[in-house]
Write a structure and sequence with these properties.
Chain A has 151 residues and is α+β, with helices and mostly antiparallel strands. Chain A has two domains: 30 residues, no CATH class; 104 residues, Sandwich (Immunoglobulin-like). Chain A is built from three helices and nine strands, in the order H-H-E-H-E-E-E-E-E-E-E-E. Chain A has a nine-stranded mixed sheet with strand order 6-5-8-9-1-2-3-4-7, with no helix packed on it. Classes of the chains: A alpha+beta (151), B mainly alpha (215). Chains A and B meet through helix 1, helix 2 and helix 3 of A and helix 3, helix 4, helix 5, helix 6 and helix 7 of B.
């Protein structure tokens, strides 16, 4: 790739490579390394399968003045967790409905637990700032965790 | 919107099977924090540069970066093609940035079109971002593996602001007259390092379209 005659070209490429790394704040790199603390959580993963903020049809509706409520859906093989982002809280439902608990996890650790009622409904207050995920558990050992999201 | 598969396809053909990335992903999936740290060190500039293309504030960029790495931790054992990790990272960062931009836009109920602020309207732009990031990562890895005197000399030669030969001579305690020859020898070692050779000759489009045989 680098012609042996052209030291200047190689040095310029090296300069670009070194500077691209120097441009990254060390805090940004440290946060990335710390993310590994979450490795090997033994729970079933519910992927983010719908996010109204990236729904282009909805974006058009918003531009024309419809009320914007952000809605997220997480789906695993066995259930889905639907969440609406309200003013100060998250309102959600586990489908099919089942009692249990929802634990909010942030990059700093567990940030609180809230009950899930018989209708599968729950409310997380206050709504998390920064990346978070929800972990749903039942008394009989079901354990499902959503993908990480940021509001 | 860039399709994940599209980028993956590009990276697959471009990067072939980068053994070091595959090994790092396998070790990180296996519980090796050092391998994970190396992945982050290697690709944080890629994640950062995509965030900067969206002109995110540093707070938003941190949220996006953290989300991307957390998502990767979650996916470590599930990545279908570990060699395509740079593509996965670029696509995921791109998607998370879009989310931030879309949410901000909505809360401000701005009238302008989302498309107006998209830096990757042309899919080849994100491809180029990945290729540049991979080349940069390979060069940094190659630099780190050089003997100390070469590493020091080359680091000073590419420093910002540039250092004069007199400054380099004083700092490294080598005669000014030997800097030129040493520079040539160190660059030759860099050029011969396996990570740089692995990039392949098609990385920089200097040769004829289609490229010649590998040397």
């Amino acid at each position: 790739m680098f012609d042996s005659a052209d030291d200047e070209q190689l040095l310029a490429a090296l300069r670009q490579a070194v500077r691209a790394r120097q441009a990254v704040p060390s805090r940004f790199v440290e946060m990335g390394k710390n993310a590994y603390a979450w490795h090997n959580i033994d729970a079933e993963l519910a992927e983010l399968t719908y996010d109204s903020s990236t729904d282009t049809e909805l974006s058009a509706a918003v531009r024309s003045g419809t009320a914007p409520i952000r809605a997220l859906t997480f789906s695993s093989a066995h259930l889905s967790i639907e969440v609406e982002v309200a003013e100060a809280s998250l309102l959600g439902q586990v489908i099919p409905p089942r009692e249990g608990t929802i634990e909010t996890e942030t990059s700093a650790g567990a940030a609180g637990t809230t009950p899930v009622d018989q209708a599968g409904c729950f409310a997380v207050e206050p709504k998390p700032s920064g990346p978070f995920r929800l972990r749903w558990r039942t008394a009989d050992g079901a354990d499902v965790v959503t993908a990480w999201v940021t509001l | 919107m860039v399709e994940g598969e599209q980028v993956t396809e590009l990276v697959r053909t471009r990067m072939r099977d980068d053994p070091s990335v595959v090994a790092l992903v396998a070790r990180a999936a296996d519980g090796d924090q050092h391998a994970w740290d190396e992945i982050v060190e290697r690709y944080a500039p890629l994640v950062w540069s995509v965030c900067m293309r969206y002109r995110l504030t540093s707070h938003d960029a941190e949220d996006v970066g953290q989300t991307v790495w957390l998502l990767l931790v979650e996916q470590l054992g599930r990545l279908r093609e570990p060699a395509a990790l740079p593509g996965w990272l670029a696509t995921t960062t791109h998607r998370e940035c879009l989310r931030v931009v879309a949410v901000a836009r909505r809360s401000q109920s701005m009238g302008s079109k989302l498309e107006d602020t998209l830096p990757f309207a042309d899919p080849s732009a994100i491809d180029q971002e990945i290729i540049t990031a991979e080349r940069n990562a390979a060069l940094r890895a190659a630099l780190a593996e050089l003997p100390e005197h070469c590493r020091e000399l080359l680091s000073m030669l590419v420093s910002d602001p540039p250092r004069s030969y007199a400054e380099i001579s004083a700092a490294l305690r080598i005669p000014v007259g030997s800097i030129g020859p040493q520079r040539a020898r160190c660059l030759e070692r860099l050029r011969k390092s396996t990570t740089v050779i692995a990039l392949g000759e098609d990385e920089i489009p200097t040769s004829a379209p289609g490229g010649g045989p590998r040397v």
